[in-house]
Amino acid sequence: MTIAEIVKNKETIMAQKKAVMKYADGCSYMDENIRVFQNNEEIIGKAITNIDELDTIQVKAAINTTNILDSHGDVHIKGLWNKSLKENKMIMHLQEHKMSFDSIIADGEDLKPSTKDMTFKELGYKMDGDTQVLFFESTVKMERNLYMFKQYANGRVKNHSVGMRYVKMFLAVNDDNYKEEKAIWDKYYPTIANKEDADAQGYFWAVTEAKVIEGSAVPIGSNQITPTIEVAAKGTTEIIEPPNNGTRTKSLMFNILNS
Question: Alpha carbon 49 to chain centroid distance?
Fold first, then answer.
């Protein structure tokens, strides 16, 4: 679809995006044209050595980050979760977006969602600029989800993904022929960390408000700056934390979906 066609049909496209549950997980195939975060295994941290003696662990996960153009062509804008986090008291931490009892990792009193403004470097990535991180702090119990308890405890969860519904969004286009869309581009483009991807595509959807329904552990996310931050044995002060050793590189899984 050309830029002209996207602009002409933007209201229909936005209505379609808002009408469905959106999952920010990977939909791309891997080829030489897709740049990927070269995540070192050390990023996720060490496994908890006494896992056989535990039945509960504490997990802090980055579920979503703003100011990244993801493989869906969307850029999440700082503040998009503010209203939803105040109103939705039934947010869930899930396994791979599966809305079933056996896929719940944590919810209710066992889950604390929050946001925090950080730089990408503070989060451990070799990228300039700022981001707002959607964090889940979860009490993960063996009896609730044994499989994911072991995945987190063994340091195997590298990415997360938010399940959401879009509420407010705008089309941004890098073309002076479209005054309204170019103004949106000029407003949000400076905040994007992976500008080379935005330049290549020539447009993006700026999402300024969304309803967070759940956050999931996934094998790979369309926004891959969504690591596990900390894993700790519940009741201890020792944190199993990924080292900030510069192994995260400036690059992004990116797929331009043209039809």
Answer: 28
Q: Is the pLDDT of residue 82 over 90?
A: yes
Tokens for 238, please give them: 């020792």
Residue-wise pLDDT tens digits, 129-150? 999 999 999 999 999 999 999 9
Sign of the alpha-carbon torsion through 183, 117, 130, 256: negative
Per residue in 83-106, pLDDT tens? Answer: 999 999 999 999 999 999 999 999
Q: Give the residue among 191, 173, 227 at the shortest CA–CA distance from 79.
A: 191
C-alpha–C-alpha distance, residues 18 and 249, integer Å: 32
Q: Extract the tokens encoding 165.
A: 């519904």
pTM over 0.85: no
- pLDDT confidence of residue 56: 94
Structure tokens belonging to residue 38: 């070269």
Q: What is the mean pLDDT of the chain?
A: 84
| Host H or E run for residue 152 | helix 146-153
DSSP 180-202: HHHHHHHHHGGG-S-HHHHHHH-
Please state, in angstroms and rounded to a whole number, the distance separating the CA atoms of residues 227 and 82.
21
